[in-house]
TrEMBL record:
Pfam family, one: Glycos_transf_2
Organism: Dorea phocaeensis
Keywords carried by this UniProt record: Glycosyltransferase, Transferase
Family of the protein in this entry: Belongs to the glycosyltransferase 2 family.
UniProt domain Glycosyltransferase 2-like: residue ranges: 5-161
Gene3D superfamilies: Spore Coat Polysaccharide Biosynthesis Protein SpsA, Chain A
Organism lineage: Bacteria, Bacillati, Bacillota, Clostridia, Lachnospirales
The name this protein goes by in its record: Glycosyltransferase
One of the record's GO molecular function terms: glycosyltransferase activity
Amino acid sequence: MAKVSVWLTSYNHGELLRESIESVLNQTYQDFEFIIVDDCSTDHSQEIIKEYVEKYPRIKAILHEKNIGRGGLAEALEDLEGDYVAILHGDDKWNEKKLEAQVAVLDSRPEVAACFTGVTVIDDDGNAYVGNHAYANVFSMENKSRYEWLRYFFDRGNCLCHPSLLIRKEVYTKYQLFASGLNSLPDLSQWIKVCFHAEIYIVPEKLTYFRVHQDESNESGETAGKQKRLFLEEYFLYKEYLKIKDVDTLLKIFPEGAQYVINGQCTIEYALAQLFYEGFSRCS
């Protein structure tokens, strides 16, 4: 039984898919199973996958006959061999040391449920965004306690890169990570749920390459429908914080919430509403 399950999602990534697959096969840590899921690509992605399956029998392919719009990990989770799950998309890639570094963290630190890495953001040609470019340091974050992460997510939103993830498989079901129903913000929902129960850790080395395509970076703006959906999903994300049931947890995440504690008692829903309003006012 492999210790790690690598789950690679593919949809119309063409020749970039080869780079992604090769970056997995070239890992210095080799105790993994490798599943590639293609969501009914209309280019030659499925032919590329079949080529690699024939050459490398360790690769398992799931080729959808119709587009379902999701990777299918939730349905396949209990059939995965690994104790740990790594996610990669067919246009992103890893440094060869990525899994080795992360497995070492999860093996030695049981309090850590999910491990990320530093990230290099690249363009269509594989060139890194550098200097003052908006994408150059978008995922550059220092490690924090889970309470500090919860505060950061509350104030700032997501800053963690999904393709850099290595997570304990049990965490998906233990903390109901698939139960969000969110389309635009599913990653952030998962990180919030994890941090309410366990620590996360970022390997500081940039071991993941995350690709931002030219047509994505030049979008002029969201449609009204997307904006409404995003607003609604943010509402459901903030509701996650209503899971706070005691003053001690509230103050670990929001130290300034002490102003709403009277004689050791606090109406947490009211305190959170005030904290949200204060944060919104600072940003507006």
